[in-house]
Structure prediction request, 267 residues.
Amino acid sequence: MARITSRWLLWRLPALVACAAGILFAAGFWLALRGTLGDPIGEPPPAPAPPAPISRKSGQRLLLVLGDSLARGTGDENGGGFALDTLEAWKKRGPAQLVNLGVNGAESADVLAVAEKPNVKSLAASADAILLSAGGNDLSHAVTRDVSGSPVEAAARIEKARIAYAANVGKILAGLREANAKCPIALIGLYNPFGGAGPEGSLVRAVLLEWTGSAERAALAFADVRVVPTFDLFDGRPDRLAADRFHPNGKGYALIAERILQVLPDN
Prediction:
């Protein structure tokens, strides 16, 4: 009996405590954000129109961008976002062009569906660098999908979304690497637009960092994939957010572009 009790204390009890902590952790995150994110998200975003065939001049480099509203540049007063900022930096060193397939409201599953299209794979095969942004909508949609549910139900939903997000990131990267084994890929990390102090703010930060950590672990399976840290750029910095207090403004996107250029090879 003593041996059984000891084994239970050493293995089962810590596992149960960890599970309970995880539920409380996600539930606290849900409670912290349920009044911040506004109305629940509606229908999934439409798929983008197939990109037109591109014509590249000799020596012209191609920057391919996939992802969500951050990839699209939503919130930038000039409409460019980090994609255009990165392209402009490239152009200072030679001819370059941009193909941006970002979609407002896209979750990682939507980005995966775009990345799997034959014409997108063809673009990826000839890209000189690929920028990928996904995950923010997976998390915010999981929080807002059913605000009438219980915290425990929300916790399970958020954890399920995190697992699906990490799996989708892995599939997207696998497909891109299959199409192009050499070009660098920059995966944009998640950030905290909500701010907040005290225990609730700490929960929000911790959950977002865990989601970014999940993406980083998925990226480790592939060569030359760099995760671009953005968390510190926006934490407690509302002056870097757009009027919707969710997307970056022009200044925020410019800072993300600086980070992208730091992790990409010298272009």
Summary: The radius of gyration is 20 Å. Residues 2-263 form a domain with the Rossmann fold fold (CATH 3.40.50.1110). Residues 4-25, 30-45 have pLDDT under 50 and may be disordered.
